[in-house]
Structures are given as structure tokens and as C-alpha cells.
């Protein structure tokens, strides 16, 4: 049986917004989902640095 066809237990580390939508999709495919957001975004009130910058990097996995 292919791995994708078997029910899997999946750790979902994505924060909201978005985690609920991803969880619903995975559960609709028959998977058991454990939600544990690993990131939390919080406004700090700190001023943004003005630069100059030689590079900016944005990532998403």
C-alpha cells in the first residue's frame, strides 16, 4: 500500500491563520492531526530598521 494511501498521524506546527485550514484538509484525507504551533507573531512596537541592506531573506517550508 502506498504511504499516501495510509492514514498517518501528523504533527502540524503551522500557526494561525492557516493552521485550521491545513488541519481540515489533512483530516479530510483521513489523517490524525496533532496541532502544536511552534511560532507566534507578536507586535513589539519596536521601530523597523531603515537599512541600508545588502539582502533580505524570506522563507517558508
Amino acid at each position: 500500500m502506498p504511504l499516501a494511501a495510509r492514514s498517518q498521524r501528523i504533527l502540524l506546527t503551522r500557526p494561525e491563520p492557516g493552521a485550521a485550514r491545513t488541519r481540515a484538509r489533512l483530516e479530510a484525507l483521513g489523517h490524525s492531526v496533532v496541532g502544536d504551533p511552534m511560532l507566534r507573531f507578536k507586535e513589539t512596537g519596536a521601530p523597523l530598521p531603515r537599512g541600508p541592506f545588502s539582502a533580505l531573506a524570506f522563507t517558508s517550508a
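Residues 51 and 57 are 14 Å apart (CA to CA). The radius of gyration is 18 Å.
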